[in-house]
Amino acid sequence: MLSELFKQLDTLTHESNRERTEEGVPTITVAEFRVVGQMALWEADLGLDLAATHDLDAFVRAEYWTQKRFEELLGRHGLILDEQSELIWMPQETAYQTIYQGRWVTGMVAQPEYVLISKARTAPQKNRSLLIEYIAQRASDLFFTLAETYKLDLEGLMQDDI
Questions:
Q1: Which of 12, 68, 136, 139 has the most neighbouring CB atoms within 10 Å?
Q2: Do residues 154 and 147 touch, judged by C-beta distance below 8 A?
Q3: Contact 87, 56 (CB under 8 A)
Q4: What is the pTM of this model?
């Protein structure tokens, strides 16, 4: 779904830039959206029991016009762009997969291991069941390496009865 939204946004931007060029006004610059959080996990389709969310967390590098058009597109699907996305902690080395590359818009999602490490570091109890499910089903070597790098107590989380 996200790749289709980015494609629609790219088309809207292209049309607006064509009109702007004809009018002799500056065009809208290239935009980049890096999706993190729960929606990145939805896109990864890991088969985990994910809670439904209406927020899309993303690091956005875009002009006001582009961000507002994106928010409108999200709204058509009952979603909102979280205004506090920039406050989300993600590992510095987070890797992203490009899910849409257009002329004016690039859409990316964080690889799931990095999202899960973010959740484990910033809100381990809130995300405990998700983390336990991930570890039990398919935790990757990368996940465990990141957990060690960021000194996360996964064993304690697994044994915690809270």
A1: 12
A2: yes
A3: no
A4: 0.90
DSSP label at residue 104: S
DSSP assignment of 12-24: HHHHHHHHHHHHT
Q: What are phi and psi of 11, to 5 degrees?
A: -65, -45
Question: Burial of 144 by CB count in 10 Å (0-12 exposed, 13-18 middle, 19+ buried)?
Answer: middle
Beta sheet of 105-110, edge-to-edge order: 80-81, 55-61, 31-36, 105-110, 96-101
pLDDT digits (tens, 9 = 90+) for 44-55: 888 878 877 789
Cα–Cα distance for residue pair 33/109, rounded to 1 Å: 8
Give 49's contacts (C-beta < 8 A, 6+ positions apart).
129, 130, 133
Tell me if 147 sits within 8 A of 120, measured CB to CB: yes
Q: Give the start-to-end residue ranges of the domains of the chain.
A: 2-159
Is the distance from CB of 85 to CB of 59 less than 8 angstroms? yes
pLDDT 10s digits, 117-151: 999 999 998 989 999 999 988 789 999 999 999 99
| Adjacent-strand bridge partners of 35 | 58, 109
Please report where in the chains the tokens 């381990």 appear, as a residue. Answer: 124
